[in-house]
Specification:
Oligomer: single chain
Number of strands: 0
Strand content: under 5%
Number of helices: 1
Order of helices and strands: H
Shape: rod-shaped
Structural class: mainly alpha
Radius of gyration: 30 Å
Length: 68
């Protein structure tokens, strides 16, 4: 049977691990919110690019170089 000191040590370690896991979880949630926001903005940028390209019409042909 473990001694009382060993049990106290394990309880202390467990408390620190629980704190560390909670901190990592908060960090992970914050990162996920940031990723979601960036993905949303990325989609908006792509939509805007598509709108601009659609409104530009066909590209005018370039004139031939002077040596032709």
């Amino acid at each position: 049977m473990p001694s009382e000191e060993a049990l106290i040590d394990l309880e202390i370690r467990l408390a620190f691990q629980e704190d560390a896991i909670a901190a990592l979880d908060r960090q992970l949630q914050a990162q996920q919110r940031r990723i979601d926001l960036l993905e949303q903005r990325y989609r908006l940028v792509l939509e805007r690019i598509d709108e601009l390209l659609a409104g530009a019409g066909p590209a005018a042909p370039e004139p031939p170089p002077p040596h032709y």
